[in-house]
Amino acid sequence: MLPGLLRRTVSLRSNLRTALQFQQVKNTTSCRNLSTVCCIVGTTFDPSFTPINQKPKRTMATYSITPPSQELLKPIHVPPKTLMGPGPSNASDRVLKASALPILGHLHPEFCKVMDDIKAGLQYAFQTKNPVTFAISGTGHAGMEAALMNIIERGEVFMSAVKGLWGERAADLADRLGADVRRISKPLGEVFSLDDIEKGLKEHKPSALYLCHSESSSGILQPLEGMGPLCKKYNCILIVDTVASLGGVPFFLDELDIDLVYSGSQKVLSAPPGTAPITFGPRAIEKIKNRKTRVPSFYFDFEGLANYWGCDEGPRRYHHTAPINSMYALRESLAFLAEEGLEKFWARHKECAELLYKGVEDMGLKMLVPNKDCRLPCVNTVCVPEGVDWKAVTVYVMSKYSIEISGGLGASAGKVWRIGLMGENATKENVERVLKALKEGIESVKAGGK
Ligand SMILES: Cc1ncc(COP(=O)(O)O)c(C=O)c1O
């Protein structure tokens, strides 16, 4: 009956409701049909309208709709900023363009090829032959959760080497997993020696140890030489966090003999936040295979992820929908790393950091970490001088130069500025810009300006 109805209603489009009532629309004409007609004739459908002889029905359409935010209807505004805090760092146009490519299905062969490229790129970045090397869908915290959830079982002893916020964070996650958490600690700005770690291993006998390579809260680079074999000797799985260092400092995973390492995309790799590289060595895999209980997370489950990433014998199966476009971006950032080459990448970060140290010293300021060899070149901690409002300086630097530098985190809060030199942003020009902005900012704040 609709075509006939339509012909006659078009002529009465100014008052559709009357038109339809005039035609004695039968009860069989559903509200959905009426709505369709209204769309065709270009008038609005009144949901409270009930055809004659039909009882009013309460449907979804009878609820009033809360209007959307007016702000949402304006164009998105994203000002350009130079991100020289502890992360994220700026992404190159190449990486951003990659993330705007068409979406593919999560098991399409072309996307599986992107995943394979990422695996190879990460094996290069980590300097490992570990076949189980891929990217978790999530930020650095997701990498941390994936590592801990797969390795630790309830009641097991987990030791966290705490020298800043990230060691505490690992202890917190392990505690949530029901582990028997033990801490060994170092004061702000100091690193663990092999002796410190061995003492802890002897005393606590942990089944896993967390060690942060790049303690970005204090600007510490933890030496890792000898830590892998030491943990092996005590039958302990070594988990290393390289979120703020992967690509920025020399790192040879296989030589170091580390069991499990994870990182983040948004720091030295200069990809958008949201993907977390991870690699599992043979001892980590054996520990996971011998678990007495199931991994308490589906999303981070080793087996499902390893299969989806094509790291086992079986055909790839759906595990979750990977953030497709973020993976394109990660792929391109790894291609960029491979093109420039790790040695040049590392050297560029070191040169920029040296330039920064000199500029900081020339200003009469001090770096938090006294030993240069233990400074993380990617996130540099500059001591805030007595009586200077650190926050006001960061506000000045942002408002005048659109440069982000950040304050401390955890125990370093209020004591340092953190200046990131990572990936795209690790250039001499940026170091000069940030030094100039910092100097001006301090002078302005000291002079009473904001
Ligand atoms: C060393 C370290 N680990 C873990 C994280 C957590 O990463 P995300 O913020 O990407 O979750 C960070 C972030 O700054 C970090 O620096």
TrEMBL record:
Domain Aminotransferase class V residues, every copy: 105-434
Pfam families associated with the record: Aminotran_5 (PF00266)
PROSITE patterns referenced in this protein's UniProt entry, alphabetically: AA_TRANSFER_CLASS_5
Give the top-rank taxon of the lineage listed in the UniProt record for this protein.
Answer: Eukaryota
Keywords tagged on the record: Pyridoxal phosphate
Transmembrane stretches in the record are none
Which metal ions or organic cofactors does this protein require, according to UniProt?
Answer: pyridoxal 5'-phosphate
The family database entries (PANTHER family) matched by this protein are listed as:
ALANINE--GLYOXYLATE AMINOTRANSFERASE, AMINOTRANSFERASE CLASS V
Give the similarity note. Answer: Belongs to the class-V pyridoxal-phosphate-dependent aminotransferase family.
Its name, as the record gives it, is Serine--pyruvate aminotransferase, mitochondrial-like isoform X1
Report the source organism: Saccoglossus kowalevskii
